[in-house]
Every structure is written in C-alpha cells, then in structure tokens.
Specification:
Elements lengths: L1 E4 L6 E4 L7 E3 L6 E3 L11 E2 L1 E2 L22 E2 L14 E5 L4 E5 L7 E4 L2 E4 L14 E10 L2 E12 L19 E4 L4 H14 L2 H4 L3 H8 L7 E2 L1
Length: 225
C-alpha cells in the first residue's frame, strides 16, 4: 500500500501498489496527481506530483476558519487505456455537446463543423486550444450480425492543447488523459442523444445500465460496465 499526500487539499490517501506512476484524482478535492513510486517500502506519507493541466492548490486564506485535520481517503482506481479497442466508439464532449467522434472506419477523428462532422486532420487549424473536454469510451460487444452497447467510461483531458492530438493520430489523445471523467447533466444528455440517434434500437435496447447512468444525477462516477 502506497501512502501519499494530495498536493491540493493535503488529504492523506492510500493507493494500491499497482497504481504507482499512474495519474489519479483526489477523491476529496479532485486535483489530478501522479501516484509516487516508493524506492523502498515505507510507512511514511509521500508527496504526490501535480500533473500538467491540474489546478494548483489554493493558497490558504488567513480569514478562513482553521482547516480540519487531513482525512485518510482511498482512491477508486480507474484504468487509463493505452490503446483503442477497435470495436468501441470514442467521443469527445465539450461542456454541452459531442464535439468529436472516432470509429474504426479508417476516417480518423471527425470533429463538429458548421455543416456537420469533418476530418480533424484536415481541419487542424480550427481545433480548440483549451477547454473542459471529456473523452468517452462507448464499450461495444461484437455479436452475430452487429454490435451491442455494454458499457461507458469517461476520462478527463488536459485543459490546454489536448485536442491538437486529434490531428496527429487516432490514439494520440490517450496521452492527454489526466484522470477519470466527471460528466455533467448536459454532457450526459448529449451522449445519450448521440447513442439514440447514431445506433439502431437493437444496439442499445439492452444497455439499461448505460442509459440509467446517463439519466442519473451521480456526477462523480466516471462510467458503468
């Protein structure tokens, strides 16, 4: 077990050994950090490293009441992918809509334009340089005659320059993930509308857990399935 201190709120956190070196978010303040790799077994609490694009810890205000002692928290692990599952569909959401789509059809990332979706590679000069973007993985299971939607996972992207990766290659965007996603009501509604419009009824008719997740009010859980 790795013991560490959140660089944002100074909470004491316990992380499993296999999370060493991975990017995670503090379950209390949501600051993204990299889990330290101890050089040798230790009972001491190690300083976690803020990752690029993470908000720096706020300076304490002398007018505020004293902060309560740190509370020990456990990280809920979310595995960050290092490659695409070719049967899955990937989306990128801005604050209110689906901005980009990737499918395994050889066309690469398609981004929202004035007249519909267009190639990110051919329109790289129009990609936004910053913003709050979530990468969404729609988990599809191959079945006889097609696919079925079986799960969904979201990932938070770095707030600056992340979408420039869409013009480089299909999977380059994975290097811009800074932690598990947190979908807002508007983002969930946009993803649900995309699913219902994009896929025929048999694809999502049995995906009750996914549709319930997208209709629910839990904005801390990054996905289901």
């Amino acid at each position: 077990m790795i013991r560490l201190v959140c660089p944002g709120c100074r909470s004491r956190i316990h992380a499993k050994d296999e999370l060493a070196g991975q990017v995670r978010r503090c379950p209390k303040c949501q600051v993204a950090f990299r889990v330290p790799r101890p050089e040798f077994p230790t009972e001491e609490y190690l300083e976690a490293e803020l990752v690029e694009g993470a908000a720096p810890p706020a300076a304490p205000s002398p007018t505020k009441a004293p902060v309560s002692p740190p509370v020990e928290e456990a990280i809920r692990p979310v595995e960050i992918p290092d490659k695409f599952v070719r049967s899955n569909v990937y989306l990128i959401c801005d604050k209110t809509s689906v901005y980009a789509v990737w499918e395994n059809n050889g066309r690469g990332w398609q981004v929202k334009g004035a007249l519909g979706f267009v190639s990110a590679r051919q329109n790289s000069d129009e990609l936004p340089l910053e913003g709050d973007f979530q990468l969404i993985e729609l988990k599809m299971r191959p079945v006889e005659g097609g696919y079925r939607l079986v799960g969904l996972m979201s990932y938070q992207l770095a707030p600056r320059y992340a979408l420039l990766a869409l013009a480089k290659g299909d999977e380059d965007i994975l290097s811009k993930i800074v932690g598990p996603g947190r979908l807002t009501r508007d983002q969930k509604a946009a993803i649900k509308l995309f699913i219902l419009d994009k896929f025929m009824h048999p694809v999502w008719q049995d995906a009750r857990a996914v549709l319930d997740f997208l209709s629910g009010a839990d904005y801390l859980v990054p996905g289901v399935g």
